[in-house]
Amino acid sequence: MKTNNIFSNYSSYSRIVLAFILLFFTIIGASAFAPNKDLTNQQTYELMQQDRLILIDIRTKAEWQQTGIAKGALTIDMMDKDFLEKIANIRLDNPAKTIAFICASGRRSSIVWAELTKRGYKNIYSVFGGTTGNGVAGWIKDGLPIEKYSAN
Questions:
Q1: For residue 88, is pLDDT > 70?
Q2: Cα four-point dihedral sign 1, 118, 36, 54
Q3: Quick one: which of 105, 151, 114 has its CA closest to 132?
Q4: Dihedral through CA 123, CA 56, CA 80, CA 110, nearest 10?
């Protein structure tokens, strides 16, 4: 069966190398805020309130269940075999809206941002600090609304 997640175009060896790179960046700490790719949690929340942004939580179901999700966020695990198709459908249905990706700390959402940017996506962002924070920021730490994850 053909998978269509962001890693599906890579060989097994490349996936292992990519996993080690991801682990390395997770261990060394937070990356710097980059205005051309990052939104703060507050900016994200304000754009959602204005109905100008779709927030997509790309963490795992276990993470959603553990912490809840940002109120109003969609949930699509970045390792879902149909991840790219789901993102493409959201973009097609909402061509004028900004799309932002949020994970736990901002690292995975930065990877998704980079991959989708390479694929030609525009008006997409990573949420700096993510849901639980990277030491300086975080949706929960910033006191923004969280809702319980529901599989419905």
A1: yes
A2: negative
A3: 105
A4: 60
Q: How far apart are CA 123 and CA 104, in angstroms?
A: 21
27: confidence class by pLDDT, cuts 50, 70, 90: very low
Domain boundaries, the chain: 12-147
Q: What is the pLDDT of residue 144?
A: 97
Which numeric CATH code is attached to 12-147?
3.40.250.10
Q: Based on DSSP, count helices (H) and strands (E) in the chain, helices before strands.
A: 5, 7
Identify whether the C-beta of residue 70 lies closer than 8 Å to the C-beta of residue 107. no
- Alpha-carbon gap, residue 48 to 45, rounded angstroms: 5
Q: What's the token pair of residue 55?
A: 């927030």
Spatial CB neighbours of 21, under 8 Å, sequence gap ≥ 6:
none
